[in-house]
# Entry
Amino acid sequence: MKYVIINHGFKGSNIENWFPYVKEKIDSDNLQVIIPQYPIDEKHHFYKYWKPILDNYKEYGYINGDTIMIGHSSGCMFTIKYLIENKIKIDKLILVSGFNNFFAKGEDTFHSAVNKSFYMSDEALLEIKKLSNSIFCIYGDNDPYIPQDKLNEFAKN
# Structure
């Protein structure tokens, strides 16, 4: 059995966006999609509260060399940081609208501060290339939250 794990982002949910569609389309006898629900309240939207949830999936063997990991928004950096800290090799990494070290101005200041716990230095971020057989970055040209240059920079790195 191969596993696909989708990690949502800031104030996300495992039943929103395109997550249920992906699960419906690829769940099968040979490929199981897992979409953990992480805390979304502002007091618990930090790496230290999300990590134990993914630890449980790792403990039961769902994260291994055959796993496909998908991160969305700040879930991209959460996924990368988790894999690097735990030195876990996976098959594929798909990052949707990912960013790193982006601190918004104005109304999004809180969003930036909360996501800070997921960020890594650009040098540390490069370690992910050793832990995944292939990495795909997907993003649009009209993201309402993250500037285009930050999406481009993240994908390039």
